[in-house]
Amino acid sequence: MPCPPPQHSQRPRERLTEGGAATLADAELLAVLLGTGRAGRPALELGRELLERFGGLAGLFAAPRAAVLGVPGIGPARWAALRAGLELARRSIAEDLRRRDALASPEQVGDYLALSLQHCPQEVFAVLFLDARNRLLAAEELFRGTLSQTVVYPREVARRALERNAAAVILAHNHPSGLAEPSQADRLLTEALKRALQCLDIPVLDHLIVAGGRRYSFAENGLI
Fold first, then answer.
1. Measured between alpha carbons, how far is 207 from 218 in angstroms, rounded to an integer?
2. Which single residue of 7, 73, 89, 224 could bond 38 by disulfide (Cβ 3.0 to 4.6 Å)?
3. What is the dihedral sign for C-alpha 21, 24, 25, 31?
């Protein structure tokens, strides 16, 4: 008896070609990146296994390299393909932010910061330096700390803003705990940075906290 043809849902590459990437589920997009599965298991099943094992895309991209390579069928080449896909998405958004007003596209700013920070296992503090038209000049990770805190030096932030000839900045950091709400320390730090940069006539437009799939904007909540 001839084997039945594969189901349409089992052909992620063809679905992407016909309907666009947005029509694919997470496992299907992973299958396209992986290319092929392993002996006896198609790429789609391997994609589903990765999502199940690591609790979704955020967990997968936050997982240590050794943990991902520990999945049967994932070798260095496929791990590199996954990381390259993530980095290409981040760079694509950064290119767009260099051409347009960041304040006109807050969702893009949030997406960029999520791709940059939400997978970090420790706290990371970053700054987006903007020109006079609020276009992205540069994005820099300035400080890296522990699971629950990082030390930020306002003088260093001010120095980098001057070196970048920034007209404004957007501050950002992640909460590996998964709780996006700002702590009292976050509020005090924001005020200290606002004062330090105000002396240089460089406004702080926002401070974004990234935590898992959530984001908290100081500006949207009236704290800037």
1. 5
2. 73
3. negative
Side-chain-side CA neighbours of 1 within 13 Å: the count stands at 3
CA angle 87, 79, 215 (to 5 degrees): 45
The dihedral built from the CA positions of residue 88, 89, 90 and 96, taken in this order, carries a sign that is positive
At 76-108, the pLDDT tens digits run 988 898 888 888 888 888 888 888 888 787 888
| Residues 96, 102, 108, 112, Cα dihedral to 10° | 80
CB atoms within 10 A of CB 170: 26
Eight-class DSSP state of 5: P
Q: What is the C-alpha radius of gyration for the chain, rounded to an integer number of angstroms?
A: 20
Q: Give me the residue label for tokens 């198609």.
A: 42
Residue 132 carries which DSSP code? T
Residue identified by tokens 């016909």 is 18
Query: Rounded to whole angstroms, how far apart are CA atoms 26 and 39?
Result: 22
Whole-number pLDDT of residue 199: 94
What pTM was estimated for this model as a whole? Answer: 0.73
Tokens of 5: 């043809």
User: Which domains are assigned to the chain?
Assistant: 8-74 (no CATH), 102-217 (3.40.140.10)
